[in-house]
Amino acid sequence: MRPLKEVLRDWEAVIGLEVHTELTTLQTKMFCDCHLSHDDPPNTNVCPVCLGMPGALPVPNEKAIESIVMAGLATGCQIQRRSLFYRKHYFYPDMSKNFQTTQGPVAFCMHGHLDLEVAGEGAAERPDCTMEKAADGSYVVPIRILRIHMEEDAAKMVHVGGTEGRITSASESLIDYNRCGTPLIELVTEPDLRTPEEARLFMERLRQTFLALGISDCSLESGSMRCDGNVSIRRRGSRDFGTKTEMKNLNSFKALHDALAYEICRQAELLEAGDVVRQETRHWEPSKRRTVVMRVKETADDYRMYPDPDLAPFDLSDEFIERCRTRIPELPLDKRDRFVATYGLRRTDAAQLAADPMTAAFFEEAARTVATEVVPTVANVIINLLPATKKVMPAQVASLAELLASDALTFAQAREVLELVDGTTDDPQRVIDERGMRQSTDADALAATVEEVLAACADQVRQYREGNRKVVGFLVGQCMRASKGSGNPKLFSRILRERLTREG
Ligand code: ADP
Ligand code: MG
Ligand code: ZN
Fold this sequence. Notes:
This protein is an alpha+beta fold. The protein has three domains: 4-109 and 145-318, no CATH class; 332-434, no CATH class; 443-503, Arc Repressor Mutant, subunit A (Orthogonal Bundle), CATH 1.10.10.410. Helix content is 39%, strand content 20%. The protein has helices at residues 4-10, 48-51, 62-74, 120-124, 196-213, 253-272, 318-326, 332-343, 347-354, 357-368, 375-384, 394-405, 411-421, 428-434, 443-456, 458-465, 471-482, 489-503, and strands at residues 11-22, 78-79, 82-83, 85-89, 99-103, 109-118, 139-152, 156-160, 172-176, 183-189, 225-235, 245-250, 280-285, 290-296, 306-307, 314-315. The strands form four sheets. The protein has a nine-stranded mixed sheet. The protein is elongated and about 95 Å long. The chain starts with a helix and ends with a helix.
């Protein structure tokens, strides 16, 4: 197969995503009072309603409707005041009712969008994009969301005795109905994505948005957020859609990207050989880096959908929708822009901090106590040093950032100090004083050391004058040695350069 980059010169990919998100932060299931937890012993959180026993009647979970309306409002959807629940029939042991309760043509949330910033090479792959280019060459591309509807999750099946958990080679299949009836929202995009990278970006942005809303733990690994990728290709310049294939349950950002990339190349190879793409559902095998056929696609008609007679039509009041609106916190993009405007952070740093609500809150708490010019150093410590720690407090990061900003500590030392205070309530300033790690920022004392070193290193000084600027590194090393490590290398370097330039 030809590499993706080459394929995308001749072909344009058309991608649409279907994203399922379990509302894991709720206490109870979608239509019954069963406790919502996937960690309890198998089949302990079940009742006649979620098992579909005769005569059991469903009652919708109001908190779940609140969550989906919040998701809709955060993605610019129109909230439908009136909608229905439908029954979608199929046979599968993971839904003992033999139908799934879901929504029909009208979902709670319709016609929204989530905007992507497409930069660099990605922007070049969108020659048709009519959006205005930013100064750095990036585009903002609105990805339209067709709908977000409410449904319930199926039970969890575990296939044992086989390879890669695949049912075809398993000797036994186990079912845990604890998951069955978990409130689930499904978001369907319009086919507006054009590259695997855009698809990955979209998924990341959506995850950040849902995390900020607090409606789910959004874990791709544990499957509380799952993505199906639909993709077709067409000749560059063509407006018609090709036949699509669908990849189910891509459970990481990498799997989403790689499966789409593979599939684009596979389809191109077929079409270039005069063959056709068949509409089918395919399975991504990460270990073999390929997709294989799962089943030929069924159509909506096969499910015999009809309005659920046990659930009355929904009429959402304006008051309810407004209450949901007031519960929406600051979203990641707004947060990022505020971090740039208030703290003068770099956009990429601000975006990284704003992506996760916990990290953002940690950052703001640490930033609150330091001077404005130290805040970017706080961001730097959080982004570069914090991931390796277990339990560091915002005050400790603030204290460390102050030392770094005043050049009393090197970054390597900061890493060491952070390890020492990790899991304690110790103040980093006290720790480095106790250990004599604090570096001198006394310019006079440092300048005296520099003079000593220059006098002893006539050779290197001559080399510097002859144009060998790299020799400064050696001289800094000598200064560090002379000061027994108590001087700051950054300051030594600055003083050395000034001094040598003045002379030469
Ligand atoms: P299906 O009925 O097969 O589930 P839908 O029309 O419901 O198909 O669309 C499912 C997803 O596939 C949506 O995200 C949609 O944007 C996307 N999609 C639809 N047609 C195409 C196409 N030709 N190429 C790529 N994606 C498509
Ligand atoms: Mg579909
Ligand atoms: Zn139940």
